[in-house]
Amino acid sequence: MPAQAPAKLPVRRYHPVLVALHWLLAFLIIAQLAGGYFVVSRMPNTDPAKLDTLKIHMMLGMLVFLLMLIRFIVRLFTAHPGPTEDQTHGLGRLRTPVHLGLYLVVLLMVSSGWATGYLISEAYATPGATLPADLPMLPSRVFHAWTALVLFLVIVLHIAAAVKERISGDKSILARMGLGARR
User: Fold this and answer.
1) Does some domain include residue 10?
2) What is the DSSP string of 110-167?
């Protein structure tokens, strides 16, 4: 008779790699949203420094994508806590769709940013070139801006849900995303 794999013991916390990636990504994504809105979008397209600023913004966007991909893969192969009682009814049932939606929105942000970068790539290849005057009207750029707004709103809802759980007395939700003993 073939040997059976040992049953996975339940865990109270997410894997430390997931926790570290969660908080690193939270910081990077919020920094990217803020940098895109308060720095990149406010620079005139004729400013030669905007090209360098956009390069940094795009490199960080690719880093976010890579870290999200790693986080998704690690999540597939590690044990994670099951749902709490509050997460099995009411608004708690939205946990999984909202998290998948967060992955999707980040993927759309990266994709639309990459498409915009591709459409303006001639500006990077020509010394002394500036960005096209119609950059704000490029469909991929418009989509990127709207997706940024959706991502911002999803993040606000994500934080609001964590605060609501904390206020309602369920301290286990935030504890799951901290470091410490997993069992």
Assistant:
1) no
2) HHHHHHHHHHTHHHHHSTT----TTGGGSHHHHHHHHHHHHHHHHHHHHHHHHHHHHH
